[in-house]
Amino acid sequence: MQARPLFENWKSVAGRLRKAQRILLLLDFDGTLVGFRAKPEEVRLDAELRGLLQRLGRRPDVTLGFISGRRRADLRERINVRGARYWGLHGWESATGLPLKRETRRKLATARYLLEKETQGLKGIWIEDKQASIVLHYRTASVRNARWARKVMRQVSSSFTSDFRILKGKKIWEMMPRELQGKGATVQKLVEEAGKGALVIYAGDDTTDESVFATLKGGITLHVGHNPHTKARFRVRNPEEVRRFLERLDEELVLWHDTK
User: Fold this and answer.
1) What percent of the chain has pLDDT over 70?
2) Which residues, at least 6 apart from 144, have a Cβ–Cβ distance to it below 8 Å?
3) N or C: which terminal CB in the chain sees fewer CB atoms within 10 Å?
4) DSSP state of 87
5) Considering the entire predicted model, what is its pTM?
6) What is the pLDDT of residue 1?
7) Sign of dihedral through CA atoms 67, 237, 232, 195?
8) pLDDT of amino acid 104
9) In this predicted structure, what is the pLDDT of residue 209?
């Protein structure tokens, strides 16, 4: 079953919002709240959107959280919404830190060295070291260079098959330790913490979000983009429509929850 257009099915979504005792609102960042840039550090959240998120996060009936492939400190600095919760590295890095074995860190350093060595000089290819994972970016690379980089990534990862897995994202490949379980596992724990009566909403744009969509069978799941194979229930086209959704959500909560 394909994801349905969100705004064409708003009546059913609004009905669930009205019945919810409280809401757990979880959002991805890159590609969901903001568009992509050539470099991750170029991405910014504008003041108007931050104000909207701040307003939602202050509500007593809403728990607001952000789950991203970025490091948690970077994510928190870029969003900067007080009272919200933040998880980095696809949900594995929380406020308590990142539990990663010393041997795993050593193997990551070796893999990074090999990747950098074999892709050195390839225009449009660059390696990002997240300390707990390694990301190969090819957003601005030619098709030829991207293919070569993919070959290198496969060759390097084959040396660490039992230790790492490869996540394919939007113009990236990310090498992650297998002990880092991903967003789905993190969201499942949050759902259990939220308890009965909580409506969970999740919005994301990438293949790394599909494990969440599969987990939240009873929630409102929102895919951002045009993936026809998504497990999300609803879809919007871009971050601009995510903003529109958040505005509609804010209006519904003011109208129905504040008049109870």
Assistant:
1) 96
2) none
3) N
4) E
5) 0.83
6) 65
7) positive
8) 87
9) 93
Q: Give the residue among 181, 139, 172 at the shortest CA–CA distance from 153.
A: 172
Number of Cβ within a 10 Å radius of residue 191: 19
In this structure, the answer to whether residues 91 and 23 fall within a common structural domain is yes
Phi, psi angle pair for 256, to nearest 5°: -105, -45
Q: Do 151 and 55 share a structural domain?
A: no
| Short-list 231, 175, 70, 185, CA closest to 221 | 231
CA atoms within 13 A on the CB side of 33: 23
The structural domain count of the chain equals 2
Q: Residue 76's domain spans which residues?
A: 4-97+181-257
43: confidence class by pLDDT, cuts 50, 70, 90: confident
72-to-94, 134, 157, 170, 194 alpha-carbon distances in Å: 7, 15, 25, 19, 22
In sequence order, which ranges of 84-142 are alpha helices (DSSP H)? 102-119
CA dihedral angle for residue 87, residue 79, residue 238, residue 185, rounded to 10 degrees: 10
